[in-house]
Amino acid sequence: MKTSFRIPRRLAILALLCAGLAGCASTNTSQKGRNVPIQPKQQVTALLKAIETGEAAPVAVVNPEKYIQHNLAVADGLAGFGAALQALPKGSARVNTVRVFRDGDYVFSHTDYNFFGPKIGFDIFRFEDGKIVEHWDNLQQTPATANPSGRTMIDGPAVAADLDQTEPNKKLVAAFVDDILVNGRLDRLGGYFDGDNYVQHNPQIADGLSGLGDALQALAKAGITMKYSKVHKVLGEGNFVLVVSEGEFAGKSTSFYDLFRVQGGKVAEHWDTIETIPPRAEWKNSNGKF
């Protein structure tokens, strides 16, 4: 029988873990008498859904002895995770993970949340010896309307293709971010795209290079600056590549998560979240955003 814990009781999950659930819970499921390993992508999807359902079993994938938290609004370790769940209004959480990809020890996901309000988020989990030991994320409030091209922050293709092209695609996207976003080499911009064919999910920007150009002009006219200063991670699976960067937006320290879909050796589609990094005095852990 499946046991669920509603949100006010979720700290009971931690009690179970401390009592040894994490150490003894199987990472296999039975299929016609055989043990079938649960893959990390499935484990991450189930863990995120447990925020909504309160199920205890998916949390067993987290190493209770070593869980490093980079969400600066949450205290470190499983205790911090449990406290954040405890603070949620009863029955308010909703989790719909639309995309999930794996790059070696890392699993990264793209999720439509209601977590202290509607948000779109990217999560990155690092696995070690079959358990999650570290977590990063980037959250942005969900806009009330679609972007100028009628797209949302979460719709579009969701399944990785061209799995044999993961490394070339990561190199292409890393070069694009370094050339254009970090160093502003706009003379190289056209080489990364197939003409004006560029699907955009940023809530303020229309499709195409023309839409991107119009948005940048509007920012400049409003006196709003956007600067990427350092790339921290480039993760990919097939034709999807996620880049985690640090910089400034409107004069504030900012974390940029950009997900790109590559097609035919060109950048074809883009999703992102932009999150302001709070002052250090407001951090609930000392691990840093990145």
Q: How many E strands?
A: 12
What portion of residues belong to β-strands? 25-35%
CATH fold call of the largest domain: Nuclear Transport Factor 2, Chain: A
CATH class value of the largest domain: Alpha Beta
Strand order of the largest sheet: 3-7-6-5-4
Distance between the first and last residues' Cα:
40 Å
Topology pattern, helix = H, strand = E:
HHEEHEHEEEEHEHEEEE
Main beta-sheet strand count, sense and barrel state: 5 strands, mixed
Shape: globular
- Taken together, the total number of domains comes to 2
CATH architectural name of the largest domain: Roll
Whole-angstrom Rg: 20 Å
**What integer is the average pLDDT?**
89
- Decide which structural class fits the backbone: alpha+beta
State the helicity in percent bands: 10-25%
Low-confidence stretches: 1-27, 29-33
InterPro entries: NTF2-like_dom_sf (IPR032710), SnoaL-like (IPR037401)
Keywords: Signal
Pfam family, one: SnoaL_2
Protein name: Nuclear transport factor 2 family protein
Summarize the structure.
By secondary structure, this protein is α+β, with helices and mostly antiparallel strands. It contains six helices and twelve strands. It has a five-stranded mixed β-sheet with strand order 3-7-6-5-4, covered by helices on one side.
